[in-house]
Input
Amino acid sequence: MGRIWLLYFIFSILWIGFILAYGLAVPLFLLGLIFRPAARAADWVVQKGIHFLMWTQPWYHADLDLQLPEQGCALLIANHRSHLDAFIMLSSIQGIRMLARRSLIFIPFLNVMMILTRQIFSKRGDVDSLLLAMENVKNRLSKGERVLIFAEMTRCEAGLRGAQAFSLVPFQMAMQARVPVIPLVFKNTDRVWPKGSSSLIPHQRVKIKTLEPVHPEAFSSVSELRDHVKNTIEQELSS
Output
């Protein structure tokens, strides 16, 4: 049954995504190149479209507690448990940009939407590529955008307690940019769509929650900032 749910999800992405993305969002993004309000409207269409996509999934049940500043930039640092994490964030926060693997740019149709929605790419395992991506993140934050970085840089194995090691680089960038870090916790999404699984496990309730902002200037080193954010996320995971 789990494979049927996954096929249903993929089919939903294809027909809902094609209609909303290529029927509405892409023309608006292209118009946004010369008329900025159209780009904001396109971001609205993408967010509402993915929200509708998730609403059509009978297997999906989530408790969302997302507290973000009403205006200005936001740097979210999260753990990463499942492919589902990205869908949840895109469906919940209008205009969110995420650090993503550069290999995704080779997937037809998805690559067009990722470029138009201005996602940020980094080659997995390439430190120079990650550093360049962090400069891009810093530039986006300076323009008031909202950016999400999965600090583990990869999904965890199914059932892992706590979080994997966090990369130091995003926290170094946060200190340089002097922007608050908002820890974001994904809980149980790996129970629904585990890493390496070709099926979905329905009716597992997932939880997504933002924690209190962390101000980099309160820490004496980058590693101290990273460890504090990781420990805060792991405490929430264990609660």
In short: The chain has one domain: 60-238.
